Amino acid sequence: MTDILNALVLMLNFVVIPATSYGAQLALGALGVTLVYGILRFGNFAHGDTMAFGTMFTIFFTWLFQSVGISFGFLPTALLALPFGILVTSLYVLGMDRVVYRHYRAKRSAPVILTIASVGVMFVTNSMVRFMIGTDDQRFADGERFILKARAFKEWSGLREGLKFKTTEGLTILVAAIAVIALFWFLQRTRTGKAMRAYSDNEDLALLSGINPERVVMVTWILTAALATLAGVLFGLDKSFKPFTYFQLLLPIFAAAILGGIGNPTGAIVGGFVVAFSEKFLGYVLPDTWKPEGLMQLLTVDYKFAVSFIILVAVLLIRPTGIFKGKVIKG
């Protein structure tokens, strides 16, 4: 029985807890992608760098608060800075919409044109972030590091293996759950949320019903900015902030959105957790000969993104609408 409990603790330490935390981060990112695709009808390749942009300004405000002695006790100061990061990111994406995307919407350009435009926005945003904060790792998590420490768990339980639970992991799961509940309430219960759903289902009929398209677009971008900043900050607190990492996150985020059914918020959440658990679990079932030397994990970051790519290709080939039958991806 003791061996079983020790094995369970190991599974929680190395698979369940980190995969749940990472899955929550991917789910928030995938929700932003699926909102843009479902309502504005194009794949937003700038989303990963929007996450980096929002995280960068949250870090700037965190440093500002820390410099004047403002903290959040045992919680990270970044939580206090998060609303300001969301505000700046919202203004940025609304500005990009006015400068770039509005022109193509007015011309009723094909979705692929808007997607290509988003690639341009991606490179611009990426360059801005690298210029403003640099390319080095930035660790900005302060406060209490652990909710549960391995040594304290060993002493309490008497088991050989210790269970650890980082504060950032607990925050990620809790904050993501609150954000998802708030988003679904907004989409289902508010007048603006219902207008967004109607616009997504049938744009022409929504316009005939008196729905203001510019208001729908504005709210969509604000929600996307909030989700992107939230996902980026939670990821940065849990790991670290490095601009190129957020560019790489675009692949698992898109894999999650497409797997669940792009355009379907529920699918984005499920897809995020499926991708996260696939990446984490696969690292412990591959042959030992595949293990990279000198690393504690069986899979490096590159291999993990290969898992996302395989999932993405398989879904596009076998079930393009995803698990929850989202919108078929087309040009």
Structure description:
With 331 residues, the protein is mainly alpha-helical. The protein has a single domain, classed as ABC transporter involved in vitamin B12 uptake, BtuC, CATH 1.10.3470. It contains 13 helices and two strands. The protein has helices at 2-40, 47-67, 78-106, 111-133, 150-157, 167-189, 191-201, 203-208, 213-238, 243-248, 250-260, 265-282, 301-318, and strands at 146-148, 165-166. The protein has a two-stranded antiparallel sheet. α1 crosses α11 (250-260) and α11 (250-260) packs parallel to α13. Mean pLDDT is 88; it is low at 294-301.
The stretches of 5 or more residues where confidence is low (pLDDT under 50) are 294-301
Overall spatial form: globular
CATH topology assignment: ABC transporter involved in vitamin B12 uptake, BtuC
The level 1 CATH classification is: Mainly Alpha
| Mean pLDDT score | 88
User: What is the domain tally?
Assistant: 1
Largest sheet composition: 2 strands, antiparallel
The first-to-last residue Cα distance is 56 Å
What's the CATH architecture name?
A: Orthogonal Bundle
Output the number of helix runs.
Answer: 13
Q: From the alpha-carbon coordinates, what is the Rg to the nearest angstrom?
A: 21 Å
Task: Using brief descriptors, characterize the structure shown.
single chain, 13 helices, mainly alpha, ABC transporter involved in vitamin B12 uptake, BtuC, 331 residues, 72% helix
Summarize the structure.
By secondary structure, the protein is mainly alpha-helical.
Chain-wise SSE layout:
Elements (H helix, E strand, L loop, with lengths): L1 H39 L6 H21 L10 H29 L4 H23 L12 E3 L1 H8 L7 E2 H23 L1 H11 L1 H6 L4 H26 L4 H6 L1 H11 L4 H18 L18 H18 L13
Helix pairs in contact: 1-6, 1-9, 1-11, 1-12, 2-3, 2-4, 2-9, 3-4, 3-9, 6-7, 6-9, 7-9, 11-12, 11-13, 12-13
